[in-house]
Automatic annotation (TrEMBL):
Organism: Stieleria marina
DNA-binding recorded as keyword: no
Entry protein name: Large ribosomal subunit protein bL25
Keyword RNA-binding: yes
Gene that this polypeptide is encoded by: rplY
Domain called Large ribosomal subunit protein bL25 L25: residue spans: 5-88
Domain Large ribosomal subunit protein bL25 beta: 97-179
GO biological process: translation
Sections of the chain in a coiled coil: none
Keywords: Ribonucleoprotein, Ribosomal protein, RNA-binding, rRNA-binding
Residue spans crossing the bilayer: none
Length: 209
């Protein structure tokens, strides 16, 4: 279900006007797409925070503009705390769109019970799907992941109608062996190996005078 954003049109644009808008508790935004003119909007910060909490991608605009839109980009402050600006793209619910969604890890990797360390290499993934069918996340099942193994984007569980854009070979997660540990092959190779002899003071090619 799409989040609702209550919008008003803003007459002034530019850095100074945007700063004043943010100080008043609003977030500046621009709505574009479908061959129509861009519209400069203002959205209450409370609506934006709710959208972020839901990880929403599709929104229903109400108030000065009544449109269905895709959140195409969020511009953050340098600390990544506050949204400074939003880009909204007009869409039809049936048209296919490209979006980035979070990856949800499901299960406990077998490798962690074997002493391994579970590492997430990717926290989100690029997909394409209809605008009205954007999932909140995609699932990666990790229960059968052992030490030294990894799972790639091709192993993600994608809902019906959702297709992967990111490279299928992209490593999403892995279970690494603990630091300083040896693989079984390395351990066996070292058993019974002759110790290296290091001579003292010289190369031993001749006797001292």
């Amino acid at each position: 279900m799409a989040d609702v954003l209550n919008v008003v049109k803003r007459e002034q644009t530019g850095s100074t006007a945007s700063r004043r808008l943010r100080l008043s508790g609003q977030v500046p935004a621009v709505l574009y797409g479908h061959g129509q003119d861009n519209q400069h909007l203002a959205i209450p910060k409370a609506d934006v925070r709710l959208l972020l909490r839901h990880h929403g991608k599709m929104v229903e605009l109400k108030g000065a503009v009544k449109e269905t839109a895709l959140v195409s980009e969020l511009h953050w402050d340098p600390l990544g705390i506050e949204v400074l600006h939003m880009d909204l793209q007009r869409v039809d619910l049936n048209e296919r769109v490209e979006v980035t969604v979070p990856i949800h890890i499901h299960g406990e990797p077998a490798g962690t019970r074997e002493g391994g360390i579970f590492l997430e290499n990717q926290h989100q993934i690029d997909i394409t799907c209809s605008a009205g069918n954007i999932p909140e996340n995609v699932v990666m099942h990790v229960a059968d992941l052992h030490v030294g193994a990894n799972l790639t984007a091709a192993d993600l569980e994608l809902p019906e109608g959702v297709e992967l854009i990111s490279p299928p070979e992209l490593v999403v997660c892995t279970v690494a062996a603990p630091k300083g540990s040896q693989s079984d092959d390395e351990a066996e190779a070292n058993i019974g190996a002759e110790p290296e002899v290091i001579s003292k003071g010289g190369d031993g090619d001749g006797d001292k005078e």
